[in-house]
Task: inverse folding
């Protein structure tokens, strides 16, 4: 059981069988996480650095926990890109870290393509923990793990991705992954926040949220950033909520009960109503636990951990 | 590359003389005496240094209307001297240097600085003066005084003149002096924070896109204003089908229009950026395959008049950054002939004469430079090249102070062997 690629940079072109292997392995680790003793020795002796060039408490904690559960040694490196602008180059920073002899780098960086550059500068296995608006493959895998756990299948599943697609770090990886696994994807959000030419990736666009709710088995609701309002990408929270907000009232108009996901952090009362976020329809907290299990699976498979019971 | 003084009598024999002014190609010799053309044709003479040009083309020295030599201010990237060496390696004997230096060339005094420095360089360098003070797009520069000192055109290149009212005045004032106005045609509001062509590839890579309309809209505005004012407008580094169409339409109504295309816009497509190669980050951006095809078509039908490199040197530090922070621009002098012939002659089967005209007669005509290079007593400006040689461009072929070229490792067709200018010969 091994993967075709040495690194996990993104899900564009990533083999379906590998995605399935990761999801299946994540299910195994999910069982481990339900045990009283949640630690396995799979990655004992391996050193992993978490390189965060941008704040992301959730993703970092999820990775750290996954590493600890696998008994790996971890170090954290946080740097704001503003300090990079001041002098030390990206290359210098990462080569310094490479010099410390590590086995894997988990990197979050605001710029698309940064993980690919990293593979040129270091020998370690590189795992992309989000490169700007490009890819965030581990998030997409945890989303797919959550969907498969809920529905038992991905092929033919109808998934709506709602909100700010353009500035999202999770949308593209979700699109690539879901399409590869045979799911159908419809995007729904303000036209100003949907990237041009995105239909060419095999998704549909529908600006009518009610149509999408009627069609979908699950919705992945993205966070809307208030800063976008100021640069006239959407006019007001009121209008956003009325067009694209997920509310109990709106969901109640449809017979079929659909699943609601959110990558967090949520703006309660904006893109998602509190009552929806806390309802049984929402699997948001399950996503968090699956996040740890999926990241354990990825680290385990990429770092050649030995099979354990 | 070796540069040495020409022998008192230098005889180029057995070459194919390609005269782009007369549109003639024939076997023959060229005699250069004291750095000047002495005879062209079948020549027998004694006591001359002889260069055998069998299999090679002898033609006018190339002329590039668009280079950035970074002096003054960023001599760590390029100087007039190092830029000249890059030019010689690419067969260029004459270039026009853009004014976006630090400080910009926006006064008669700063034009004189370039002219005086250029005098000591091994090629002819003509400054293009800034069209507005500080290239801020607001107040006119002293164009007349700058022209007197040697400015051959006006441009705020690098920075588009966004205010249409200012552009109109620049055209009116420059038109009065009968000098070309060159506007970097990108609407910065439409371009927004785009770092590559907007399209399927930019969306796939999660990079902000710069749509073709940013150029189309600006070129359209500039063309209308040129017609309104009667000025000479030269459209630089045309990159989109829309701009080609606009230029082609306007040329039917108004004659003082010219346009250039770069070798890199003819050679690359946006898909080539999929590995986030910052050397392919340029402004205007590398466009889609369909735009590229329209540029080739526009070149073939004469809508595009000349090839210009937009040679834009940057340090390793400026380019070895993440994609968002990397500087815009690539060097292009050394790879120009090989890239251009590879696309236009090798792949598109265009005749060599048309392509060479776009590197010689046409740019000289646009700027009002001497075009009769083979005339007796003309100071020799010659380029001798092998039109067929297939070669891989490497770092060793770069003579610029910077090495930000995406052509490294690429197969090119056609290679410069000798460049003769200012009574010197460069052996490449
Ligand atoms: Zn320009």
Result:
């Amino acid at each position: 059981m091994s993967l075709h690629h040495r690194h996990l940079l993104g899900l564009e072109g990533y083999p379906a069988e590998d995605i399935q292997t990761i999801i299946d392995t994540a299910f195994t680790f999910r069982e481990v996480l339900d045990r009283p003793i949640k630690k396995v020795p799979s990655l004992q002796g391996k050193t992993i650095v978490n390189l965060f060039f941008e704040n992301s408490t959730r993703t970092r904690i999820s990775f750290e926990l996954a590493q600890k559960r696998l008994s790996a040694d971890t170090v954290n490196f946080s740097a704001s890109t503003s300090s990079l602008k001041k002098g030390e180059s990206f290359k210098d920073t990462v080569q310094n870290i490479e010099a410390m002899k590590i086995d894997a780098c988990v990197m979050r960086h605001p710029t698309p393509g940064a993980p690919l550059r990293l593979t040129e500068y270091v020998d370690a296995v590189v795992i992309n923990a989000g490169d700007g608006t490009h890819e965030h493959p581990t998030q997409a895998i945890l989303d797919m793990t959550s969907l498969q756990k809920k529905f038992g299948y991905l092929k033919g599943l109808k998934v709506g991705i709602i909100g700010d697609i353009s500035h999202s770090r999770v949308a593209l990886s979700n699109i690539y992954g879901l399409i590869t696994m045979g799911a159908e994807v419809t995007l729904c959000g303000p036209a100003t926040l949907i990237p041009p030419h995105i239909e060419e990736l095999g998704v549909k666009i529908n600006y009518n949220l009610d149509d999408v709710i009627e069609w979908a088995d699950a919705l992945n609701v993205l966070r809307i950033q208030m800063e976008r309002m100021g640069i006239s990408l959407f006019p007001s929270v009121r209008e956003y909520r009325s067009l694209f907000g997920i509310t109990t009232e709106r969901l109640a108009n449809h017979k079929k009960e659909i699943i609601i996901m959110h990558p967090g952090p949520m703006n309660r009362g904006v893109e998602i109503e509190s009552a929806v976020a806390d309802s049984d329809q929402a699997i948001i907290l399950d996503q968090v636990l699956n996040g740890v299990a999926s990241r354990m699976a990825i680290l385990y498979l990429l770092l050649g951990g030995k099979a354990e019971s | 590359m070796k540069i040495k003084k020409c022998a008192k009598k230098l005889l180029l024999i057995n070459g194919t003389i390609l005269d782009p002014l007369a549109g003639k190609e024939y076997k023959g010799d060229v005699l250069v005496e004291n750095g000047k053309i002495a005879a062209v044709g079948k020549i027998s003479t004694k006591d001359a240094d002889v260069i055998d040009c069998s299999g090679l083309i002898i033609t006018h020295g190339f002329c590039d209307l668009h280079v950035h030599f970074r002096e003054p201010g960023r001599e760590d990237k390029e100087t007039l001297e190092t830029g000249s060496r890059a030019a010689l390696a690419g067969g260029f004997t004459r270039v026009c240097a853009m004014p976006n230096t630090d400080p910009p060339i926006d006064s008669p005094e700063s034009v004189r600085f370039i002219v005086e420095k250029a005098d000591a360089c091994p090629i002819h360098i003509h400054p293009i003066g800034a069209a507005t003070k500080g290239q801020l797009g607001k107040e006119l520069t002293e164009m007349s005084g700058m022209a007197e000192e040697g400015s051959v055109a006006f441009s705020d290149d690098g920075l588009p003149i966004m205010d249409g009212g200012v552009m109109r005045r620049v055209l009116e004032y420059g038109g009065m002096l009968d000098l070309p106005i060159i506007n970097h045609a990108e609407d910065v509001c439409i371009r927004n924070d785009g770092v590559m062509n907007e399209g399927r590839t930019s969306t796939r890579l999660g990079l902000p896109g710069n749509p073709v309309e940013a150029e189309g809209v600006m070129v359209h505005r500039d063309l209308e204003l040129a017609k309104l004012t009667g000025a000479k407008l030269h459209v630089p580094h045309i990159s989109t089908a829309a701009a080609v169409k606009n230029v082609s339409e306007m040329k039917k109504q108004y004659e003082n229009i010219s346009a250039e295309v770069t070798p890199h816009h003819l050679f690359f497509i946006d898909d080539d950026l999929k590995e986030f190669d910052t050397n392919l980050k340029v402004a205007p951006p590398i466009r889609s395959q369909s735009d590229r095809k329209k540029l080739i078509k526009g070149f073939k039908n004469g809508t595009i008049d000349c090839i210009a490199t937009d040679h834009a040197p940057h340090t390793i530090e400026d380019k070895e950054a993440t994609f968002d922070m990397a500087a815009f621009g690539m060097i292009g002098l050394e790879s120009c002939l090989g890239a251009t012939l590879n696309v236009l002659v090798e792949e598109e089967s265009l005749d060599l004469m048309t392509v060479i005209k776009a590197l010689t007669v046409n740019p000289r005509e646009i700027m009002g430079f001497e075009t009769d290079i083979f005339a007796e007593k003309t100071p020799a400006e010659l380029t001798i090249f092998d039109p067929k040689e297939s070669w891989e461009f490497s770092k060793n072929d770069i003579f610029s102070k910077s090495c930000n070229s995406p052509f490294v490792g690429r197969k090119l067709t056609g290679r410069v062997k000798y460049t003769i200018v200012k009574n010197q010969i460069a052996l490449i």
The interface with chain A takes residues 198-200, 202-207, 209, 211, 275-276, 317, 320-325 of chain B (CB under 8 Å). The longest strand of chain B covers residues 9-19.
